[in-house]
Amino acid sequence: MLRVVLTFTTLLLLGLAAFGQKQSAESLLGDWTGESKCVGGNPYCHDEIVVYHLTRSRKDSAKINLSADKIVNEKPEFMGEFRAPQIGLGD
């Protein structure tokens, strides 16, 4: 899970740096759904549908919260939450 969150966060931060505009960064907030595919021969790894939730922090609007759920039996199962550092979403 940590690897998935770190990978997603890294891509998010790179994307924000590339956009460089508040309007574009704001458009990244919301719910994102995708597939997490296993590679290699790890028997403990399972392909999953993952839903990422990106929201503004309630304490500091220039920061975002990232939480993730995996879909199990068609229902979300909480995987974790991460608070990203300031990334240019200031008012």
Structure summary, number of beta strands: 4
Helix content: 25-40%
The end-to-end span amounts to: 31 Å
Domain module tally? 1
Number of helices: 2
Strand order of the largest sheet: 1-2-3-4
Tertiary shape: elongated
H/E order of the elements?
A: HHEEEE
Structural class: alpha+beta
Could you report the average pLDDT, rounded to the nearest whole number? 76
Radius of gyration: 14 Å
Low-confidence stretches: none
Percentage beta strand: 35-45%
Largest β sheet strand count, sense and barrel closure? 4 strands, antiparallel
Question: Quick summary of this structure?
Answer:
25% of the residues lie in helices and 37% in strands. It has 91 residues and is of the alpha+beta class.
Explain the overall architecture.
The chain has helices spanning 2-19, 22-26, and strands at 30-36, 48-56, 64-72, 75-83. It contains two helices and four strands; from the N terminus they run ααββββ. The chain has one domain (2-83). It has a four-stranded antiparallel beta sheet, with helices on one face. A hairpin with a 2-residue loop joins β3 and β4 (75-83). It is α+β, with helices and mostly antiparallel strands and 91 residues long. The model has no long low-confidence stretch (mean pLDDT 76). 25% of the residues lie in helices and 37% in strands. The N and C termini lie far apart (31 Å).
